[in-house]
Design goal:
Oligomer: single chain
Radius of gyration: 16 Å
Strand content: 15-25%
CATH superfamily: Luciferase-like domain
Number of domains: 1
Helix content: 25-40%
Distance between the termini: 24 Å
CATH topology: TIM Barrel
Order of helices and strands: EHHEHEHHEEE
């Protein structure tokens, strides 16, 4: 079993009156919430959405790996690209990037994150990441995940 925190970096609806009547948003930042739940539970998976559009791979990889250690190997990441102009506006953008560009970034993002989780990125040994969207030199400052790597889930309809 798992708890799944669907999340977005903005309201789902521009009309605050309508948005306040929905139950789609949990309100709390999900990694913080799941970290609190990790110490109160022992067997339930802890999965959250995190967008590749408005995060950076090193920080996100570190946050989910930290949650994985705090929970004894129960963390999971629902990888998404954001598709809401409301979210884009919260990050200084006047509109969404084209679908193909968002997915290209997501592929490069996932490659960096999984490389960090698997201990395969270490610029000192010449194995950093220099991709289309990201350049990462150093490994994470945490040991490998208790479960190998946090679980990656896909809860939507994307390929």
């Amino acid at each position: 079993d798992m708890i799944f925190c669907e999340d977005a970096a903005g309201l789902r609806e521009a009309n605050v009156g309508i948005a306040s009547q929905t139950s789609r948003s949990i309100g709390f930042e999900p990694i913080s919430l799941l970290s609190a739940l990790a110490v109160q539970t022992s067997r339930i998976g802890l999965v959250s959405t995190a967008s590749t559009s408005y995060n950076e791979p090193y920080g996100l990889a570190r946050a989910f790996l930290s949650l994985d250690h705090l929970s004894g190997g129960r963390a999971g990441w629902n990888l998404v690209t954001s598709a809401s102009p409301i979210e884009a506006a919260n990050f200084g953008s006047t509109g969404l990037k084209p679908h193909a560009d968002r997915y290209e970034r997501a592929r490069d993002f996932a490659e960096v994150v999984t490389g960090l989780w698997n201990g395969k990125l270490d610029g000192a040994s010449g194995s950093g990441h220099d991709g289309q969207s990201f350049s990462v030199r150093d490994p994470l400052d945490l040991p490998r995940s208790p479960q190998g790597a946090p679980v990656m889930v896909q809860a939507g309809a994307s390929d």
